[in-house]
Design a protein that fits this description.
Strand content: under 5%
Number of helices: 4
Number of strands: 0
Distance between the termini: 30 Å
Radius of gyration: 26 Å
Number of domains: 1
Structural class: mainly alpha
Oligomer: single chain
Amino acid sequence: MNKQHNIYHQRLERFRKSRLKTSEKIADLVARWCGSWSFLLLHLFGFVLWFALRLNFNFLTLIVSAEAIILMNVLLMSQNRQAKKDDLRDEADYQADRNAEEGIDEIKKIVKDIQKK
């Protein structure tokens, strides 16, 4: 195994085994829940209730805008962590592919040498 290839796999393994911070766990939980039907249905129910009670629409706009800002930041934190993990995995896969290609080239040389003999 190539030394550089091994380094990438070690970095990926360290990232996988590292303990998530509490904030990262919360970001992942929020991201998972925000992508669910229960989240959507809860909001739809809340909007219908708000309209039925004829509450102040300006206050609803304020609430929804604040929620959108907070959720956007939390989702971006979760995506950034996932992107880092994906980048490490992609680099390790690329190095594995390069090593496999080198091995195949060696096998081709050996086969050519055998054919010549």
